[in-house]
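Hey L., structure's done. Input below.
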Amino acid sequence: MGTLSAPAAGSAAPTRISGTQSRAVAAGTRVTAAVSEQPRSYTEAQVAELTARKQQKDNHTANLGKQGPEPRHGALGPEMAVPGGISTATASVLRNSAIPASGLSGGASFASNTQEPSTDANGGNIFQVGNWYATRSTNNGATWNFLDPFTLFGSGFCCDQVTQYDAATGRQFWLLQYNNRLVLANASAAGAGAFTGWCFWNIDATWFGLAAGTTLDYNDITITNNFVAISTNFFPATGPQGSAVVRLPKFPMSTCSGFSYNFLNRTDSFTFKLVPGSTDTLLWGSNWGQTNGSSFRIYSWAENSGTYFFWDRTVAAYSFYTRNSGQNCGSTDGVVRNWCQFGDSRTLGAYRASGILGFSFNARQDGSHPFPYTRIVWFNESTKAYIGAGDQWGSWGAIQYMSMAPNNSGRVGTTFAWGGGTGTTHYYPGAAVNNSPANAIDTSPNYYLWGSGNTCTSTGGLYRWGDYLTVRTYKANPSQWVAAAYAMTGGHCGAAGAYAEPHNVLFS
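Output:
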């Protein structure tokens, strides 16, 4: 199990902010999605268009906060088991569905090699999206067919997509990135016609109280008792960068009706990670904007209030990294390339369970961690006091891009990417799942997906794995989880027959 660090000091009193604002919008637009056996085959011109939009989005970098001190402590807990070196894993994979080789094996003509997948499910009806596809299964992953995000909600589709199912309304919510806006859509997740009749809204920067034309990027979604919350990072043409949240009422949205909503934005935090498991209070956190590498900020916004609060906490120091700042996820001999070169230490995972708030983020290698690893920090949900931290790390390779979700018994399901290798051992990046207590880390993940080649380069020629993976609590059996991840198969990126194969897994 992961070992907690000693609690660090933090201000007991929160900061109260009464600056949320409210606006009203009209009813949404209804569209019906065509469903096909094969995904859209993009032309060379369309691939170039999508790639250019994605690279333009990827050019944005943040300069918030100051760099904290390098860690002066050992690893906070024992390392993870070596892949393949154990006979049993804590997490049991109940179903592993490749989205199918027959559909996406065309590589860049169907999908990007930087997948960034997201998923959720209403029992056997599963919806999964990624760069640049959308797919559904109505038979628990046995077969899949496809929707076309390139045309379904108008022109300008770019890349990032996230999705979440809401059991209270029976609707699948789907958030998509466009070159000048976001789209939030929802559809019924029931029956053979699941995920076909969509209602959607175009969301531009003004929805977040920002100037028209402000670029939005790296979007997240979580659903509380009464709201769909969306967070985004913003990059104005001039002026400070930051992050913002809109809180949209889910019940009128589920009937495609008009509604009023609230929003807030801040220029002293970057990348808000919304907390799965939020109910009557929306919770989120950020580790970027104050002292990067030794501080964390927790936010709280009750559903019945226009006021929100935040708490600044000091946490055990770690090596916070930004794009191409010395992190190296490759093998020690360089055969496995540095697949996290384009990444950074923004908060990627979160949960609320058993009175604990947990958050995860990437950290750079240091004297106690030979490869980049994942740091998890824990806080008391009631007081927001810092409890401690744990590390998911290995002497054999890197563990990065962790996503987290709680189940109904207070345990936390995670999915993450892994890879590296020492000596003559080479682990091309793949995916794993884990099942841990709310305040600790189990050291025997299930490395269910192994890569067979190196990832691609992105903007500036940097190797890139993507910005996120996704795990959700499985609503049909809340003791389980559904997760989306991927790995290169058929060889290195760019080789004939090589492509990024997305997977959808159910695990406990």
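The chain has one domain: 30-507. The domain at 30-507 is CATH 2.130.10 (Methylamine Dehydrogenase; Chain H).

-- N.
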